[in-house]
Model the fold of this input.
Amino acid sequence: MTRIWRGTVRGRRVDLGLGGYPYTTLAEAREKAFDYRKLARDGGDPRTLAAGAQNGVPTFRDAVEKVIEIHRVAWRGGKNEAQWRSSLSSYAYPRIGRMRVDDISTTDVMAVLLPIWNEKRVTAKRVRQRIGAVMKWAVAQGFRTDNPAGEAIGAALPRGGARTKHFKALPHAEVAQAIATIRATAGWPPAKVALEFQILTAARPGEVRAADWSEIDVENRVWTIPAKRAKSGREHRVPLVARAIEVLEEARLFSHGCGLIFPSVTGRMIHGGTLPKLLARHGIQAVTARIPQLVPGLVRRDGAAAGGRRGCARSRGQEPGRGGVRSVGPVRAPAGAHGGVGSVRLKLRVAVLP
Done:
């Protein structure tokens, strides 16, 4: 005697075998039927459980794990993996997580993206990109022949929508006063000089917080960030102006002998939230997560426009007057910069006066 589960999956009647006596007990059949019914109610397809193991076609959730495993080696740290898991768990899994990758259609992908496309455009684009990456993996594995998150839905998704909200930035004429304000506070001295050093070098927060004395060549005024710590994965050399050298000499007074240039109170690396809090606590309307907001449009020596979308160039051509930053002429953002490949938007090259 064979028992059968009969239910409705996406508007269609589906019959699935539960196993026959005596190989499957009544309790086992009921448990399997419950799983099928629950999966169908949640928008999934019970056939993924019944047939997936036989033909090797994974569910979307399982395919995501495969793709993450492939890319984990190339990703730096666990941030990328965490972002993948977070975005897909929040927006994709509820709709297509339990579906087999060969059953996912453009309609299903649209159902994932439309609720967030206008309100969370950046997030929606990333979700689409990640779904597309999983679908391309499925194509490469022979599980399907097309990518339902590709060009097929590009024209169907709304254009316009939410406007881009840029990170807060200071006009460079106000940078000197901001530094003076931070300097006058009673904060942890290495944190204060770290912030100024970050501004002077246009470095990223993590690069500054993990900066080591072994990377500094005082004689040639160069800070060499090793490839393992550079976002580009390549060694990056940062020229140091006279004021940056002075900041480093000041930092030596607080050295714990741990090698870090800007250690915390305990001699470890300063916490990632320390510098942003230092600005926020004193009412300075800028963030440090995308450097250099405080130095608009600075162009890094490695060819990346550090200003790009991370800074604000609304004060082009202005002179701060004293003790700060002066413009030395506009330059065109290089190909591959944050402004986009071949961007025609002008950036303001700036130099810090010693």
Q: What stands out?
A: The chain has three domains: 2-50, 60-154, 172-352.
